[in-house]
Amino acid sequence: MKEEYAAKSRRSPTDQRELKETKKNFDALSGQLKLELPRFNSLAKNLFRDCVCEFTRHFKIYCEESYSFTLPIQGLPVIFDCSDVVSQFERRHSLVAGILTKPNGSLNTNPFKSTMPTQVFKSRYDFLSRNAQELSLKANQIVYILEKHDKLGNRDWWYAQTSDGYGYVPANYLTPQN
Fold first, then answer.
1. Does the keyword Nucleotide-binding apply (predicted)?
2. N or C: which end of the chain has fewer CB within 10 A?
3. Please, which residues bridge with residue 120 across strands?
């Protein structure tokens, strides 16, 4: 084996020159890589950080929008035992049966209007919502109040319904309607 290597290394001066040139190119490229690798590493870290930040931002938006869809469900009555389920079914069944037997009867598809008492208010001013849980208002818009507090018990924000949807509105923007 050593003899073959020795024979190959003694072959020709052209081969020796090519070998030296190849080694020289390898050393130059290796040195250039050592210089550029920290910069590449820094760029890769910045790209990864930016991707994580964008993912976090979009995930937050997704969570806020998903949570806003659950707000109407949170207002539904809680059922604690089986007897409530049966009586509630019978009550709603008789209500629907009564509506269906009346000529030209219409079924109220809004669960809040059929199961929860509402108070009617009118908005004093325009209000632009700042997040998915809030509800935008126009001046003199009719507003149905479902709860006179927010999730934390704050009475400055009320949970309301308009023709545009559901959400929290500032209580001081509303006046009662008779």
1. no
2. C
3. 144
